[in-house]
Amino acid sequence: MARDIADISPAEITRHLKGIDFPVTKDGLVEQARENGADEMVAELLDALPDREYDDMADVMEAYDRLNSEEESYNGEQIDADDLFGDEEDFLYDEDEE
């Protein structure tokens, strides 16, 4: 079975951020995790966090919890904008059709 972002634990995130200096940007989180051997799923999760500065690990975990709760609200399924709203062409119409 393929690994999913929802399978990543807070402990795993903390382990991959070992040695990080706060405050740090989201890009800094991703960079540190990769330096500590994080796989692509961990890097993607960190990259999905809000693009801002994080003051400490508790701040990172709070953002992770919010992201994780959003994922759970979709029953663990990743949904993109096309799934929610349809393709762009679904919103295009001929002005003569009004």
Oligomeric nature of the chains? single chain
The general outline is globular
What is the mean predicted local confidence, pLDDT? 81
Q: What does the main sheet amount to?
A: 2 strands, antiparallel
User: How many individual helices?
Assistant: 5
How much is the radius of gyration in Å? 18 Å
Percent of residues in helical segments?
Answer: 40-55%
- Roughly what fraction of the amino acids lie in strands? under 5%
Low-confidence stretches: 81-86, 88-94
Q: How many E strands?
A: 2
Indicate how many domains the architecture comprises. 1
Spatial strand arrangement across the major sheet:
1-2
* SSE pattern: HEHHEHH
N-to-C span: 49 Å
Structural class: mainly alpha
List the helices and strands and how they pair.
Layout: H1 10-16, E1 24-25, H2 26-35, H3 40-47, E2 53-54, H4 57-72, H5 81-85
Antiparallel strand pairs: 1-2
Mind explaining what this structure looks like?
The protein is mostly helical and 98 residues long. The chain has one domain. 47% of the residues lie in helices and 4% in strands. It has helices at 10-16, 26-35, 40-47, 57-72, 81-85; strands spanning 24-25, 53-54. Strands 1-2 form a two-stranded antiparallel ribbon. Helix 2 packs antiparallel against helix 3 (40-47). The longest helix has 16 residues, at 57-72. The radius of gyration is 18 Å and the shape is globular.
